[in-house]
Automatic annotation (TrEMBL):
Residues 129-138 have a biased composition (Low complexity). The keyword Cell division does not apply. Coiled coil: none annotated. Keywords: Membrane, Transmembrane, Transmembrane helix. This is G protein-coupled receptor. The chain crosses the membrane at residues 6-32, 52-69, 89-110. The keyword Repeat does not apply. It comes from Panagrolaimus superbus.
């Protein structure tokens, strides 16, 4: 094995391992911050922090299992001179799936993202799931309704749809 191949392999693997260890460290640090703030925050904030923590755990697990491990497999197959295209295809497919899995997991785990995305995709108008009449037949909320407690309730405003053309310009 050539020393340059080994050098480039180490140069490629070390930053990837650093990102994995950093994500584990930050997830643990977030847990301690949430535990320290429990007595000073409201129940709603605790719920949001718990959702954030579960999302961090999910994303860290997905990062390690669907990015770090396949990347290490690619590096080891190069270092051990294993020339099997199927192994490379499997590893690269797992790396590509990591971003899709993280996106879908975040949307499904965090209620506000889920409500906004379903509200933009489904044209039905349903109140927030916190109200008793807020769910449709399958239980998925589609819009988020913001109301002021001091004003009399009126027809709930609908969130504007996300316009990608205006965002990209």
């Amino acid at each position: 094995m050539k020393p340059t191949v080994i050098g480039f392999g180490i140069f490629a693997i070390v930053p990837d391992l650093f990102v994995a260890f950093l994500s584990i460290f930050l997830t643990i640090k977030l847990w301690f911050i949430i535990e320290a703030d429990k007595s000073r925050v409201s129940t709603l904030t605790q719920t949001l922090e718990r959702n954030l923590y579960h999302t961090f755990i999910f994303r860290t697990t997905a990062l390690i299992s669907l990015y770090t491990l396949p990347y290490m497999g690619i590096a080891l197959s190069i270092l051990l001179n294993i020339q099997n295209p199927k192994v490379g295809i499997i590893f690269h497919t797992l790396i590509i799936l990591q971003s899709v899995v993280c996106l879908i997991g975040t949307i499904l785990m965090i209620k506000h993202f889920r409500v906004y995305i379903f509200g933009c995709c489904i044209s039905k108008k349903i109140l927030d799931s916190s109200s008793p009449s807020a769910s449709n037949s399958n239980g998925i909320p589609t819009t988020l309704t913001a109301r002021s407690e001091t004003l009399p309730p009126t027809s709930p405003p609908k969130l504007p749809p996300l316009r990608l053309n205006s965002v990209l310009q």
